[in-house]
């Protein structure tokens, strides 16, 4: 399923009510109007941090101390966790380092002791917030298994998978807007900072490419995992004649719409231009103010009796 292209300006259909004398298929009408047609590449996605990491130790052992809690901000290199072997490993390193400095031990042996010591504790690799704690004091931590997760919540991104048919319209530093489900009334400004060169096949979407957009600073509280939609404007025209996208049909003879004359649907050929998810530009075949059947035109045939409803 292809990711939809969304119009930045939604066209409100103008409905006209009426009733055929002898009944017929119920239809709604919309007027052709002039306005700005904006086309966006759109995709769903989630909020992430541009700098986040799951932290662990190399060595395995019982957790003796945890120095930070969830949601706590920590500075770079702050000690976060120790195993029960950390203290002894530290003493071993100090002793061997002292012997190495006095010439009684090869420097390589002291360096090896230092690495063994460092393998028993976790320090913050950057300044950020502890967003998840996977283990508690007294539990056994196996080397390589995540113990903590931290993220820089001052550098947030919106990550999405863009369909291969749209990816060519995007570029680095292109501006975008993000609307989160948690803040539907607010459009957050963003800038594309990453476009994957490797594709990803997503179920029901086909071939996609990961795109990351850095979110501008905002007064809103952004949380990892928030979902929403990204909109990247790729085309627009002003003062164009347009009708709802759902009013357009296509067959072997080309594009068409249905107008209503004397309670009957009349097929009318048109030429179209720019298309968005909501609206389609009409280049010829209609005039401003003309009314067309708004939707479900696949169920209608030329000359069929119809009844206009609200």
The domain count comes to: 3
Q: In one word, what is the shape?
A: rod-shaped
Proportion of residues in extended strands: over 45%
SS-based class: mainly beta
The CATH architecture category of the largest domain equals: Beta Barrel
Number of helices: 2
Question: Can you offer a commentary on this structure?
Answer:
The chain has 3 domains: 25-40 and 238-308, conserved putative lor/sdh protein from methanococcus maripaludis s2 fold (Beta Barrel), CATH 2.40.420.20; 42-48 and 154-232, Elongation Factor Tu (Ef-tu), domain 3 (Beta Barrel); 61-143, Beta Barrel (OB fold (Dihydrolipoamide Acetyltransferase, E2P)), CATH 2.40.50. Helix 1 packs antiparallel against helix 2. It has a 6-stranded antiparallel β-barrel. With 310 residues, the protein is mostly beta strands. The protein is rod-shaped. Helices cover 9% and strands 48% of the residues. It has 2 helices and 24 strands. The longest helix has 16 residues, at 86-101. The model is unreliable at 1-21 (pLDDT under 50).
Write a concise keyword list for the protein shown above.
310 residues, mainly beta, conserved putative lor/sdh protein from methanococcus maripaludis s2 fold, Elongation Factor Tu (Ef-tu), domain 3, OB fold (Dihydrolipoamide Acetyltransferase, E2P), 3 domains, 4-stranded antiparallel beta sheet, 2 helices, disordered N terminus
């Amino acid at each position: 399923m292809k990711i939809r292209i969304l119009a930045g300006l939604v066209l409100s259909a103008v409905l006209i009510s009426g009733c055929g004398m002898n009944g017929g298929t119920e239809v709604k009408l919309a007027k052709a109007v002039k306005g700005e047609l904006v086309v966006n590449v759109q995709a769903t996605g989630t909020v992430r941090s541009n700098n986040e990491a799951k932290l662990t130790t190399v060595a395995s052992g019982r957790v003796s101390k945890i120095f930070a809690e969830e949601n706590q901000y920590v500075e770079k290199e702050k000690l976060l966790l120790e195993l029960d072997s950390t203290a002894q490993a530290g003493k071993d390193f100090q002793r061997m380092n002292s012997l190495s400095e006095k010439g009684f031990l090869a420097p390589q042996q002291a360096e090896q002791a230092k690495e063994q010591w460092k393998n028993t504790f976790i320090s913050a690799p950057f300044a950020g917030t502890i967003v998840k704690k996977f283990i508690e004091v007294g539990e056994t931590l196996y080397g390589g298994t995540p113990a903590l997760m931290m993220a820089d919540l001052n550098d947030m991104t919106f990550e999405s998978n863009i369909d291969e048919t749209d990816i060519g319209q995007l570029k680095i530093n292109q501006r975008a807007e993000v609307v989160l489900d948690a803040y539907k009334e607010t459009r957050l400004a963003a800038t594309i900072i990453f476009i994957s060169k490797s594709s990803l096949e997503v179920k029901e979407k086909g071939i996609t490419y990961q795109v990351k957009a850095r979110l501008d600073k905002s007064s809103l509280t952004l949380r990892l995992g928030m979902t929403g939609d990204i909109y990247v404007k790729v085309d627009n025209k002003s003062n164009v004649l347009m009708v709802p996208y759902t009013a357009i049909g296509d067959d072997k003879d080309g594009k068409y719409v249905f107008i209503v004359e004397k309670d009957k649907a009349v097929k009318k050929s048109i030429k179209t231009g720019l298309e968005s998810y909501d609206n389609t530009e009409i280049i010829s075949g209609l005039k401003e103010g003309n009314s067309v059947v708004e939707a479900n035109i696949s169920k209608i045939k030329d000359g069929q009796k119809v009844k206009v409803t609200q």
